[in-house]
Amino acid sequence: MTSTTEPTEPLSVEQLSATTLLRFATAGSVDDGKSTLVGRLLHDSKSVLTDQLEAVERVSASRGQDTPDLALLTDGLRAEREQGITIDVAYRYFATARRRFILADTPGHVQYTRNMVTGASTADLAVVLVDARNGVIEQTRRHAAVAALLRVPHVVLAVNKMDLVEYKESVFAAIAEEFTAYASELGVPEITAIPISALAGDNVVDASANMDWYGGPTVLEHLETVPVSHDLGHCHARLPVQYVIRPQTAEHPDYRGYAGQIAAGSFRVGESVTVLPSGRTTKVAGIDLLGKPVDVAWTPQSVTLLLEDDIDVSRGDLIVPSKDAPPTTQDVEATVCHVADQPLTVGHRVLLKHGTRTVKAIVKDIPSRLTLDDLSLHPHPGQLVANDIGRVKIRAAEPLPLDSYADSRRTGAFILIDPADGTTLTAGMVGESFAAPQPVKDEGDDDGWDF
Amino acid sequence: MTTVASVSEETDSSPYALSHLDALESEAVHIFREVAGEFERPVILFSGGKDSIVMLHLALKAFAPAAIPFTLLHVDTGHNFPEVLEYRDRTVEKHGLRLHIASVQDYIDRGILRERPDGTRNPLQTVPLTEKIQSERFDAVFGGGRRDEEKARAKERVFSLRDEFSQWDPRRQRPELWQLYNGRHAPGEHVRVFPLSNWTELDVWQYIAREGIELPEIYFAHEREVFQRSNMWLTAGEWGGPKDGETVEKRLVRYRTVGDMSCTGAVDSDATTLDAVITEIAASRLTERGATRADDKMSEAAMEDRKREGYF
User: Fold this and answer.
1) Rounded to an integer, what distance in angstroms lies between the CA atom of residue A213 and that of residue B55?
2) Helix H segments across A195-345?
3) Which runs of consecutive H residues, i.e. helices, occur in A150-168?
4) Which residues from chain B sit within 8 angstroms of residue A423, using beta carbons?
C-alpha cells in the first residue's frame, strides 16, 4: 500500500490549502498504550520534528531510560511528567497530504470522564483503545457510552498489543464483535475495528505484515478517508446572533448586520426567517461571508445576515427558517455530565449558556444518575459530583429555543455556569438520552415504607 | 473490517465541505465576535509578528464593514527589529487603530526591572504586560499563541482565565465544551483569548499566502549581518552583540519568528517569496521555536513556568 504521508514532491500552496480538517479524540484506559499510539501516529506521519525528538531523547536518557519515551511528547505539564500520567486534555496537530488533523488527546483515568466529554464534544471521530489481552472491559464500555452520549459520528475500536496475542485473528474478531454489539445498541452510528500494535507500528500508519488476514485500512488511512458529514439536507438551519455590526460611517450609514457562525444547516438570500425568542418574521436580504456577499451560506461558516425589515434583533437571539422553527421553552430536560469539583444539587441557582444566550436558571430536579458501567439508572441521587452523568430538569428565567441534541450537536448543547465564581459546572445535552431504554430501578419507591 | 450501519455517500468533494483554512478562519472569527459580544475592554496583543498580523486580519474581516471594536497593545522590549516597528506603526495608522505600548526599556530606566546577565529581555515582558492590563483594566487580551508551538501551550484553552496577578493555573482550567466559551471573570481578573489555538505554523503561512497579507521584510530571505551564539544566527546591534570571540558575518537569512533581537535567531534561507517560504517550512525538520528561540530552551518547563507568571 502506498503511504500517503510522504509526498515525493513538495506540495504546492494550492494543494496544501485544499485539504480538509478532521477533529478526533482518543480514549483508552491507563496502560492500554494510548500515549504510544498517539506518539506513533505523530512519529510515523513525520509530524514530530527533530528538535522535539531530541528533547525527548535527552530527557529519557537523563532518566536512565534506554529508548525514547514517546509519552514525553504529549505530557506537557510538570505534574504530568512527575506522575507519569496525563491529567488534562491536550490538543495536537498533524497533517498528511489529504487532511489536517486536530487530535483531542484525552486522559483515560476513570475520574477524568469529564475530559473525554470535553474532547468528544467537538470530535467527528473517537478512537477507543483496548488491550487485546484484556478485551472489552468496564472502561471500554464507559468510553463507548460517552462517545454515544456525545453523538460522535464515527468510532474506531483500536485493538492494541496484537503482538502480545501472536497476531491471532480469532482474538481480534471476538473483541470486535463484542464491542460492535455493545456500541451499536447504544446508538453509535458507525464502528470500525482495527487490529494494531502501537509499539511495533502494525496498522497504525503502515499496513502490518504480521496480520495478512486483515483487509481493512490502517488507523491513519481510515482517519484520512472517513467522510465528515456535510449532509445538510435534513438539518434545521440555525444562526445564533453573536454581535450586531453597525458601522455608522458615511460609506455605510444604514448597514445593520447580524453576525454569527451558522450552527446548523444553510441560509439563502430571500428565505423567510424568524427571530427567536421574539418570533418576529422577515426575509434574508443579504448574506456577507466575511466582507464578501454570497447567495447561500452553510455551517460552520461565520457570516453576517442582513434582514429586510428593521426589527429588534440582538446578541443571544436565534435566527431560523420560518418553516422550521424550534419550540421555545423555559423547562429544559437534559442529560448532563458534571465537570466541576463542587457538586450540582437540586435548588442550585446557575447560569445557562445556550448558543450566544446566557440566562439565569435553577436546577429543579435530578431524576437519575447514570452508571456508565452497566447503563443502569440510579434514581434521585440528590446531587451530581464531578464526572457524574445524569438526567436533570432545569427552569430557565427566559424562554429558550432548544433543539434536541440528537438533531443538532450545536444548538442542542448548553453549559451551566456558577454565577458566583464563573466556574463551568456542567455540560448539557437537551432531550432524551440514549440510555433511556431501561426503566428506572424502583429502589427509590416510597411504597414500601412501613409506618 | 467490522463496519456497521451504512457509510454516508458524502465525501470531501461535497460542495458543503470547507477547506481546513476556511474552517480555521470561521472558528477564529467566531472567537473574536464572542469576545466583542461579552467583554467591556478587549485588547489585541500586536507585535508586528506574523501571528498577530493574522489575528488583526481576521478581526478586520470579523467586523467588516465596521471598524474593529478593540485597541492594540504592544509590549516593546526595546530590542525590536526596526523593520517590525515601522510595520507596526504603518499598520496602526492605515486602519485607524489605537495602540497602547508597554515598554520594558522604561521599566529598566525607572529601576523597576533589572537587565538579565544574559541580556535576554523576553522574560522581562511579563511585568510591563500585566501592569498595563491592570492599569487599563483590560478584561480580554487576545494573544496569537498556538497550541502547536509548545507542549505547555498544547494544554491551553481558547478562553484562559487569569487571576488578578495574571497567573495561569493549568490544573484549574475550565473545560471547553462544544463552541460554548465561558468568559465569566471577577473584577481584576481577565481572560486571555487565543483565536489561533488550532492553527499550525504552516496554516498561518498558507493563510497569509491565500489572503495576500503583507508582512515585515525580515520574514523573507535577505542579506544580514549576523553572528553565531548558541547555534543561532543573531542580528548584530546595540542590544549587546556580538561579544568578544563572536564574529559578525554577512549571510542570506530569514526569520521564522519575530521577537526580541537578543533571543530570536535567523535561519539560513533563500526563500524570497511566500511560496518559497511555505515550501521551506513544509520540508523543515525543526519547529520554529526549536530553530529560533533561545528562551524556550532554558528548561524543560520554561514555557509553562513563564505562562504561570503571566507571560503568553
Assistant:
1) 50
2) 219-225
3) none
4) 174
Q: Position B300: which residue type?
A: E
Using CB atoms, which residue from A177, A260, A339 is nearest to B175? A339
Contact A291 B7 (CB under 8 A): no
- What's the CA gap between B104 and B262, in Å, rounded? 13
User: Three-state SS for A371?
Assistant: strand
DSSP secondary structure of chain B:
-EE-SPPPS--TTSTTPPPHHHHHHHHHHHHHHHHHHH-SSEEEE--SSHHHHHHHHHHHHHHTTSPPS-EEEEEE-S---HHHHHHHHHHHHHTT--EEEEEHHHHHHTTSS---TT---GGGGHHHHHHHHHHTT-SEEE----GGG-TTGGG--SEEEE-TT----GGGPPP--TT-------TT-EEEE-TTTT--HHHHHHHHHHHT----GGGS-EEEEEEEETTEEEE-BTTTB--TT---EEEEEEESS---TTTB-EEE----SHHHHHHHHHH-SS-HHHHHBSGGGS-TTHHHHHHHHT--
- DSSP annotation of A449: -
**Phi then psi dihedrals of residue B12, to 5 deg:** -70, -5
Residue pair B81/B258 in contact by the 8 Å Cβ criterion = yes
Minimal Cα distance from A78: which residue of B? B301
Phi and psi, residue A237, nearest 5°: -75, 135
| Interchain proximity A422–B182, CB inside 8 Å | yes
Tell me whether B3 touches chain A (CB under 8 Å): yes
* A407/B279 Cα distance (integer angstroms): 42
Check if the beta carbon of residue A365 is closer than 8 Å to that of residue A440: no
**Mapping DSSP to helix (H, G, I), strand (E, B) and coil, where does residue A228 land?**
coil
Between chains, do A247 and B65 touch, taking CB under 8 Å as contact?
A: yes
Nearest to B33 among A18, A100, A259 (CB): A259
For A419, the closest chain B residue by CA position comes to B184
User: CA nearest A87 in B: which residue?
Assistant: B171
Cβ of B182 within 8 Å of Cβ of A301? The answer is no
Q: Answer whether A298's CB lies under 8 Å from A266's CB.
A: yes
> Cα(B162)–Cα(B165) distance, rounded to whole angstroms?
7
In whole angstroms, what is the distance from residue A326 CA to residue A127 CA? 33
Question: Would you give the DSSP letter of residue A99?
Answer: E
The DSSP annotation for B22-44 comes to HHHHHHHHHHHHHHHHH-SSEEE
Q: Does B2 touch chain A (CB under 8 A)?
A: yes
pTM attached to this predicted model: 0.89
Q: Name the B residues in 149-208 with CB < 8 Å from any A CB.
A: 150-155, 161, 170-171, 173-180, 182, 184-186, 197-198, 200, 202-203, 206
Give this complex's ipTM.
0.89
Contact B117, B60 (CB under 8 A): no
Digits of tens for pLDDT over chain A (451 positions)?
333 334 344 555 565 566 889 999 998 776 677 878 888 888 777 777 677 777 777 877 888 877 777 667 666 555 554 554 445 688 888 888 889 999 998 876 656 788 889 999 999 999 999 999 999 998 898 889 999 999 999 999 999 999 999 999 999 999 999 999 999 988 888 899 999 999 888 999 999 999 999 999 999 999 999 987 665 656 789 999 999 999 989 999 999 999 999 999 999 999 999 999 999 999 999 999 998 999 999 999 999 999 999 999 999 999 999 999 999 999 999 999 999 999 999 999 999 999 999 999 999 999 999 887 777 889 999 999 998 999 999 999 999 999 999 989 999 999 999 999 999 999 999 997 654 444 444 444 333 333 3
Distance in Å, alpha carbon of A295 to nearest chain B alpha carbon: 14
B67 interface with A at CB cutoff 8 Å? yes
Q: How near does any CA of chain A get to the CA of B56, in Å?
A: 14
Cα separation, A55 vs A325, whole angstroms: 55
